[in-house]
């Protein structure tokens, strides 16, 4: 029962995704920035509460990264569609996530075992992806930021996305080979 509050916060973040997309598509970019900021704060709060109240749950372990991925991917696709983020970067970010999800499904199918432990490079990639969306929305919605910061953050996101995707493929490939396909 103690896991209810962190899970409700996470569910709220997940349900905010369509609103965030709508705000971006209808040029309400200041409101999209503030919603994105609240979503980020809610991510920190639900994680803190889950640890502090010893309220980690299996559903929360799946729901939290799902909410994060939905918000990030939908924001990248929307901002790319609107011409605010380079399309090549959107394709790279989405392709990495498809590879990771597909790889996880394949690994689980082959081994009947999967533990998701985020890699350090993946955490860095997530932070950089969030920062880029925040900077883009702040620049467009609030007039704060610069094209130079956005450009360099885009390169950092691209590099960390490539490194993170390669790291997951390498780790899961080694694990699969070590298991030899055994169940």
Structural summary, described in words:
The chain is mostly helical and 183 residues long. The chain has 6 helices and no strands. It has helices at 4-25, 29-52, 58-81, 87-111, 120-142, 147-179. The longest helix has 33 residues, at 147-179. It is globular, with a radius of gyration of 17 Å. It starts with a helix and ends with a helix.
What keyword list fits this structure?
183 residues, mainly alpha, single chain, 83% helix
Q: What is the chain-wise order of helices and strands?
A: HHHHHH
What is the helix tally?
Answer: 6
Q: What composes the largest sheet?
A: none
First and last CA, distance: 34 Å
Backbone shape: globular
- Helical content band: over 70%
User: Cα-atom Rg, whole angstroms?
Assistant: 17 Å
Strand content: under 5%
* Main structural class: mainly alpha
List low-confidence stretches.
none
Mean of all residue-level pLDDT scores? 89
Q: Tell me the number of strands.
A: 0
């Amino acid at each position: 029962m103690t896991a209810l509050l962190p899970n409700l916060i996470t569910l709220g973040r997940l349900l905010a995704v369509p609103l965030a997309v709508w705000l971006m598509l209808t040029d309400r970019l200041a409101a999209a920035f503030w919603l994105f900021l609240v979503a980020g704060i809610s991510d920190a709060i639900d994680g803190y509460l889950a640890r502090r109240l010893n309220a980690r749950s299996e559903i929360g372990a799946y729901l939290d990264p799902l909410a994060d991925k939905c918000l990030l991917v939908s924001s990248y696709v929307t901002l790319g569609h609107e011409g605010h983020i380079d399309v090549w970067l959107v394709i790279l970010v989405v392709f990495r996530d498809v590879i990771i999800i597909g790889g996880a499904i394949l690994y689980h199918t082959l081994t009947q075992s999967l533990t998701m432990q985020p890699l350090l490079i993946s955490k860095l990639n997530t932070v950089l992806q969030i920062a880029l969306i925040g900077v883009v929305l702040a620049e467009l919605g609030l007039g704060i930021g610069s094209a130079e910061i956005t450009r360099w953050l885009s390169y950092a996101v691209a590099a960390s996305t490539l490194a993170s995707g390669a790291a997951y493929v390498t780790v899961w490939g080694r694990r699969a080979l070590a298991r030899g396909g055994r169940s």
